[in-house]
Known about the structure:
mainly alpha; Rossmann fold; Tyrosyl-Transfer RNA Synthetase; 2 domains; two-stranded parallel ribbon; 12 helices; 5 strands; 7% strand; globular
Amino acid sequence: MTKRVLSGIQPSGNLTIGNYVGAIRQWIENQDQYDAYYCVVDLHAITVGHDPAALANKTREVAALYLACGLNPDTNVVFVQSHIPAHSQLEWLLTCATPLGWLYRMTQFKDKSAKQEQESVSTGLLSYPVLMAADILLYHAELVPVGDDQKQHIELTRDVAQRFNHLYGEIFTVPEGIYPTTGARIMGFDDPTTKMSKSSDAQKHAVHLLDDLKQVHKTIMSAVTDSGNEIVFSKDPEKAGVNNLLTVYQAFTGKSESEVMANLADARGYGDLKKAVAEIVVEALRPIQENYAELTDDVSYIDSILAYGAEKASEVAEKTLKEAQEAMGFLMARQTVKP
């Protein structure tokens, strides 16, 4: 029986090559193997300050990039999270079944809240892992393809599902995370000790999927390395920049470490390494950008894909929500019959 998968990305910031190799490319490579649901998780985008005027445009942009990268809307359900009210409804049910201590232990909450004034930290920032659990559990997803930074969230989802099932009966499928074998964690080119972020404003930090290709080349050529000249995969913190460049090269070529080193055997220094990485990335982004330009030439096409996806997703989500509500003892609304 075909397994079901679900995943999604927030429409905040600008999608990077880290989002591509860590998530989207996995979806593309495996899309014929699964019963797949991929959403733009716009509800997650409002847990920190956001620009209301930009949210809808960014939501459509992310959906278009899914398709431009190669996701087939005929065989995958592509939709927007907020178009399915069941996501928010199930989140509340799961929140009431989730111990507060589980949420306070979440690393991303600790990191993000530490950067804000206590009074400005939204409750949503604390509880959004429960919304993520609702996203997954609504569709009985057996597998969730994500980057390795989401492992803790997958574990929380499993814990929430198991706790709910213990309290109210076997309603939810307990999911497993699947992670990329290469390129699972692309680091910033300006600081190779920090994960590449689509929300960073720092210049030369990230390569975004829609960056001008000349800028892509320039960003990679400016990547931080070290004072040496040895091109080698290494866990040595001093070699973090070189290791990141090699990781990007490996992720975009799909080669093993030994094959990467063989390909780069003639590189005379870090300049040659950066040039090789830049060329690989530019050529990978070129068709994505061309597809994106064609798709967005007619906005109504993207919207029609999302409307169809919402219809298909609702069929599954509403059924699961009803099962959870009934298990918790809610009086279900009935259709009235005219006398």
